[in-house]
Specification:
180 residues; 3 domains; 8 helices
Length: 180
């Protein structure tokens, strides 16, 4: 098939119908889109004469967004929204409740960038040594600050560099990152 021709690049569905009717122009469909002929012919043109529009079918309003594409891709792959907790997280017990996106991230009163960072951490989507090595992007799992295995938990809580930052942060109450 290849790319559309200059004549057909802006065609709409209505251009595959006989002019002034709701019948498919089967000879045109066979010539231009032979692979999709059976799929096209199963469609029933709308009788109200509504204009052709682009529509994203997985959602009700038909508007395609990054968010709707992401959730559609998750649904197709049966990927859970919350990844399994890594073994390096010693504070997690087997009877802990599952991760709740709204309670744990969306409802946090912080900047959108902070929420994005938290979401990426919850999805194991941060570019740390462990995830980059799993994707075969880097060979080393080592933290650039201390040389230990770099995971999300290590980066934010276990690394000696992170511990120094937590100690210097101006919190009202003290914070002990080693509990993670």
């Amino acid at each position: 098939m290849g790319p559309p021709t200059e004549d057909t690049q802006n065609w709409l569905v209505s251009d595959l119908l006989f002019p002034g009717s709701l019948e498919w122009n089967t000879s045109l469909i066979k010539r231009l889109l032979p692979i999709y002929e059976s799929d096209i012919l199963r469609l029933k043109p709308i009788k109200t004469g509504a204009p052709d529009i682009w529509g994203w079918l997985p959602i009700m309003d038909g508007v395609c967004t990054t968010k709707s594409g992401y959730f559609h891709a998750l649904a197709e792959t049966n990927t859970p929204l919350v990844p399994p907790v890594s073994e390096s997280s010693s504070a997690v017990s087997s009877n802990q409740t599952p991760f709740d996106w709204k309670a744990n991230i969306c409802s946090v009163k912080s900047s959108p960038k902070t929420k994005l960072l938290l979401w990426k951490m919850a999805q194991n989507a941060l570019q740390v040594g462990e995830s980059l090595a799993q994707r075969q992007i880097v060979d080393s799992l080592k933290c650039p600050h201390c040389g230990l295995r770099e995971t999300e938990i290590h980066l934010f809580f276990e690394c000696s560099f992170a511990s120094q930052i937590w100690r210097k942060a101006p919190f009202k109450d003290s914070f002990n990152p080693s509990i993670f």
